[in-house]
Amino acid sequence: MQKPPVNSLNLDLLVALRDTLVKLEKEKCKGMILTSESPSVFSAGLDIMEMYRPDHNRARKFWTTLQDTWIKLYSSPYPTVAAINGHSPAGGCLLALSCEYRVMVGPKFTIGLNETQLGIVAPFWFQDCMRNAIGERQAELALTLGKMFSVDEALKVGLIDEIAKDKADAISKAEDFLDEQSGLPALARSTVKVAFREATLNRLLKNREADTKMFLDFISMPKVQQALEMYMQTLKKK
Ligand SMILES: CCCC/C=C/CC(=O)SCCNC(=O)CCNC(=O)[C@H](O)C(C)(C)COP(=O)(O)OP(=O)(O)OC[C@H]1O[C@@H](n2cnc3c(N)ncnc32)[C@H](O)[C@@H]1OP(=O)(O)O
C-alpha cells in the first residue's frame, strides 16, 4: 500500500486493493505479501472522511467495496502474509487479520481493533477475524476495550505470529512462510483454508445487505457524526 501519509482506506485505495486481489487470483498467484511503503504506518484503517458527513451513494459504494476487498482477501486460494511494518489500527488490523500469517516489526508499533475508543463499533466480521486469531475470551476483552496491542503483547496473545527487527526482516520472514507453503499441493492447501474460513465468510455473504444498511444507519446518527468530528479534530491537532 502506498497512499501517503497513513494508507487510510478510502474508496480509491479499496478499489485498487480489490482489483489487485481479483487480478492475482485470475493470474494464479502463488503467494502475496501485504505491506506498506510508509516507514511507520501499515494502514490507519478506514478513512474517516469517508464516514464523516457522507454522500449516501458514495458511502454505500465505500462499504460494499470494503466488503468485496475483505471477501477476496480472506478467501484467496493463494497464501497471504501481512508484513506489518507500522501502526495498524482498526481497518488496518482487519487487513492483517485477513492474511494467513502476520509478521510485525517491533518494538514500537501498535495493532488492534480500537473502534470502541472512537465511539464506533467494529462490524461483526471484524470481530470474527479477531476471535478466530486470538480466541473468544481475549477477543471480547480486546474489542470491548478497543485495545491497541504493543508488538510484544500481540505476539503473546497470538494476534501476530512473529516479530521482525525491520521491514527487510519482516519481508524475509514472510517469504520463508510462503516458501514453506509453496511445497504443498495447492488444491489441498486451499481446500483446507476455505474449510477453516467458510463459516466466517458465509456470515457476511449471507448478511451483506443488512451489514451495509447497519453501516449506513450508524453513520447517519448525529452522535456518531459528533464522535467522528471530535476524533478527526484530535488527530489534526496532534
Ligand atoms: C459501523 C461503523 C464501522 C466503522 C469501522 C471502522 C473501522 C476503522 O478503520 S475506523 C478508523 C480508525 N483509525 C484510527 O483510529 C487511526 C487514526 N490514526 C492514527 O491513530 C494515527 O494517524 C496513526 C497512528 C495511524 C499514525 O500516526 P502519525 O503520527 O504517523 O500520523 P498522524 O499525524 O496522526 O496522521 C497524519 C495525517 O493523516 C490523517 N489521518 C490519520 N488517520 C486517518 C484516518 N483513519 N482517516 C483519515 N485521516 C487520517 C491525520 O488526520 C493527519 O492529517 P493531517 O496531516 O491533515 O493533519
From TrEMBL:
The keyword ATP-binding does not apply. GO terms for cellular component: mitochondrial matrix. It is found in: Mitochondrion matrix. Gene3D superfamilies: 2-enoyl-CoA Hydratase, Chain A, domain 1 (3.90.226.10), 6.10.250.170. One of its GO terms (molecular function) is delta(3)-delta(2)-enoyl-CoA isomerase activity. Keywords: Acetylation, Fatty acid metabolism, Isomerase, Lipid metabolism, Mitochondrion, Transit peptide. The keyword Hydrolase does not apply. It holds the Pfam family ECH_1. GO terms for biological process: fatty acid metabolic process. InterPro entries: ClpP/crotonase-like_dom_sf, Enoyl-CoA_hydra/iso. Pathway: Lipid metabolism; fatty acid beta-oxidation. It catalyses: (3Z)-dodecenoyl-CoA = (2E)-dodecenoyl-CoA; (3Z)-octenoyl-CoA = (2E)-octenoyl-CoA; (2E)-tetradecenoyl-CoA = (3Z)-tetradecenoyl-CoA; (3Z)-decenoyl-CoA = (2E)-decenoyl-CoA. Signal peptide: none annotated. PANTHER family: ENOYL-COA DELTA ISOMERASE 1, MITOCHONDRIAL, ENOYL-COA HYDRATASE-RELATED. Homotrimer. Key enzyme of fatty acid beta-oxidation. Able to isomerize both 3-cis (3Z) and 3-trans (3E) double bonds into the 2-trans (2E) form in a range of enoyl-CoA species, with a preference for (3Z)-enoyl-CoAs over (3E)-enoyl-CoAs. The catalytic efficiency of this enzyme is not affected by the fatty acyl chain length. This is Enoyl-CoA delta isomerase 1, mitochondrial. It comes from Ranatra chinensis. The lineage of its organism: Eukaryota, Metazoa, Ecdysozoa, Arthropoda, Hexapoda.
